[in-house]
UniProtKB/TrEMBL annotation:
Residues 50-79, 83-112 form the 4Fe-4S ferredoxin-type domain. GO terms for molecular function: 4 iron, 4 sulfur cluster binding; metal ion binding. Pfam families: Fer4. InterPro entries: 4Fe4S_Fe-S-bd, 4Fe4S_Fe_S_CS, PSI_iron-sulfur_center. Keywords: 4Fe-4S, Iron, Iron-sulfur, Metal-binding. It comes from Candidatus Schekmanbacteria bacterium RIFCSPLOWO2_12_FULL_38_15. This is 4Fe-4S ferredoxin-type domain-containing protein. It comes from the Bacteria.
Length: 196
């Protein structure tokens, strides 16, 4: 199962596409090859392009950065039991919304223009995190570190919640099954094999 977590509306980046074509023509006419690591850093803070740097120790892979990214430069993909956060330099406008949305201060945007990544539109993997799987159906619940953070916060409040071990669908079924005795009996009769 390969799931793109963040779905965003495609943004019209025609000016950016035009710039890419101009740079391609310019570099090909000059005979220069675009090489890895060649980046142009601005003299002043201009919000044009940026490179995401994620601190692996601080990041809990919650996805807040990708949720707030207006262009889809940051994306999250859940594949089996791994969450991957990636960055596309070509789409990044260095608005730094991802920085302000991250409570853990785990992401920084370095304002620079890497011509190779900008022109080629390379998707760079920035973070991989293990996903906690539902005890019932084995579908992803969320990143292990993120679930642990939630459990820790709840414990500080004196709340122990076993529901964090289940996905949203199984949680609903468990709640209905445990809290409504008549419904529980009906569900047992209607779905004797536990199918939902």
């Amino acid at each position: 199962m390969d799931t793109l977590v963040k779905k965003f509306d495609e943004i019209n980046l025609e000016n950016r596409k035009l710039l890419i074509e101009l740079i391609k023509k310019f570099s090909s006419s000059g005979g220069k090859e675009l090489k890895e690591g060649n980046a142009v850093k601005p003299l002043h803070e201009i919000f044009f392009a940026g490179r995401a740097i994620i601190d692996d120790e601080k990041c809990i892979a919650c996805g807040a950065c990708a949720e707030t990214c207006p262009t889809g430069a940051l994306s999250i993909r859940d594949d089996e039991n791994i969450r991957t956060i990636s960055h596309t330099h070509q789409l990044c406008i260095a608005c730094k919304r991802c920085e302000t949305s991250c409570e853990d201060k785990a992401i920084k945007i370095e304002v620079e223009l890497n011509l190779k990544d900008f022109i080629e539109g390379n998707l760079r993997k920035k973070k991989s995190a293990e996903l906690k799987l539902c005890k019932e159906c084995k579908k992803p619940v969320g990143p292990v570190a993120s679930i642990a953070r939630i459990a820790e916060k709840l414990k500080e409040e004196g709340i122990e919640l076993s529901e964090l071990d289940y996905c949203q669908k199984c949680r609903k079924w468990r709640t209905a099954y445990e809290s409504v005795p008549k419904l529980s009996i009906y569900l047992q009769r209607s779905y004797p094999d536990g199918e939902k």
